[in-house]
Design goal:
The complex is a heterodimer of chains A (179) and B (194). Chain A is α/β, with parallel strands linked by helices and 179 residues long. Chain A has 4 helices and 8 strands. Chain A is globular and about 65 Å long. With 194 residues, chain B is an alpha/beta fold. The chains are: A alpha/beta (179), B alpha/beta (194).
Chain lengths: 179, 194
């Protein structure tokens, strides 16, 4: 950390970065340091070291409707909502310590070119998954008959996007080993 | 935290403290500031449905092997449990915890890359509904992100359509033209769109 701060001060002294950038960079570095990122250095050789999902960019006809659904149902935290056309919905660890977020937004003026690939659903992990409580909570929101199996349920959001919620017991990549 | 850094930086700029004092103060503050920080409060919702992390992303494409090889190459991801129609790519090795997660029952996020009929029933239910929404790009967090170096690395790997995205990230297209974004943790729910 000291070497990093030393380098940052030098950049400030030489005018490469301004006061604001200095403070923001150091604040981010502090958060990253606390999260243990220094133990996750990129491997030597080609390719990047994936730390995790950063965000999902979710396009829909009315971002407010999506915002209200995901925040009230799944406890996602609303950030950077300027009341125009988009909002961030944070979940998991704190935003600068590995947290994920969903960017819910209205269609933009410059949409990406059409792709041959599609994300057909997203699965979210629920810690301490309790099938009875999950079913009751879903029923309270009008999802009387979610599809799927115990500890792995599918529901549709207000725009009919397929959402899966699951426990680590049911949905874990390493369960597939040896199959 | 930023205000504290600014105060010390101003003191240094005005000659009130030495460079050494600035270095020591900021290093100590940055190293310990978040040690006991509480978790961010979430809005009211049923705790039974509170999401801990993304579990997996279900990516459907014309050739799952080609798709998986692209993600393995660019992100150093292992391929696990291949079947005739899909394969999983966890964001780390067995036994590792997701970055920033302390709970023991939150697995590593993974991609499931598939080639399947989207009109087929999901998990024995009715055929999947046609959605008005879409995930039109995905952002991934990578270690030691340096935009200019990353740009050069991606081009060296033959990745197409590499371009800047906002202040902290890069965009590119994958093997099937899907929009992929990479960044460090500087791109997060507080900074993106701020």
């Amino acid at each position: 950390m000291e070497k990093f701060v030393d380098r940052l001060i030098s950049q400030f002294e030489s005018g490469q970065i301004g006061r604001r950038e200095f403070c923001q960079t150091l604040a981010t570095a502090a958060a990253v340091f606390a999260g243990g990122l220094e133990a996750n250095a990129a491997p030597a050789g080609k390719g990047f070291k994936m730390l995790g999902l950063n965000h999902l960019s979710y396009q829909c006809p009315d971002y407010r409707k999506a915002r209200d659904f995901y925040s009230s149902m799944f406890g996602m935290q609303v950030t950077n909502d300027k009341g125009k056309d988009r909002a961030n919905l944070a979940f998991g660890p704190e935003p600068d310590k590995g947290g994920n977020f969903l960017v819910v937004h209205n269609p933009g003026a410059n949409p990406p070119k059409p792709s041959e690939a599609v994300i057909d659903h997203i699965c979210y992990t629920i810690s301490n998954y309790d099938e009875g409580k999950v079913r009751a909570a879903l029923k309270a929101r009008g999802f009387d008959n979610p599809t799927g199996r115990d500890e792995s349920r599918h529901v549709y959001d207000p725009f009919d996007y397929d959402i899966q919620i699951a426990s680590a017991r049911q949905e874990n990549a390493f369960r597939r080993e040896g199959r | 935290m930023e205000a504290f850094f600014a105060t010390k930086l101003d003191a240094f700029a005005k000659g009130k403290i030495s460079r050494r004092a600035l270095l020591e103060t900021l290093t100590l503050a940055a190293s310990t500031a978040y040690a006991a920080a509480p978790a961010a409060a979430a809005p009211a919702s049923d705790p039974a449905l509170k999401i801990a992390l993304c579990n997996h992303i279900s990516y459907n494409c014309p050739d799952f092997k080609k798709g998986a090889d692209w993600y393995s190459k660019v992100f150093n991801l292992d391929q696990i449990g291949a079947s005739k129609i899909d394969v999983a790519l966890p964001f780390g090795k067995r036994g590792e915890k997701p970055f920033g997660v302390t709970a023991n029952d939150v697995p590593l996020t993974h991609l499931i890359i598939r080639t399947r009929d989207l009109n087929a029933p999901a998990e024995g239910g009715a055929p999947r509904r046609k959605s008005q929404a879409s995930i039109e790009h995905i952002g991934y967090t990578v270690a030691d992100f340096d935009r200019e170096k990353a740009k050069a690395d991606l081009k060296a790997m033959g990745v197409e359509n590499v371009r800047d995205g906002g202040l902290y990230s890069l965009h590119m297209t994958d093997a099937f033209g899907y929009d992929v974004q990479i960044s460090g943790v500087a791109n997060n729910a507080l900074t993106d769109g701020a």
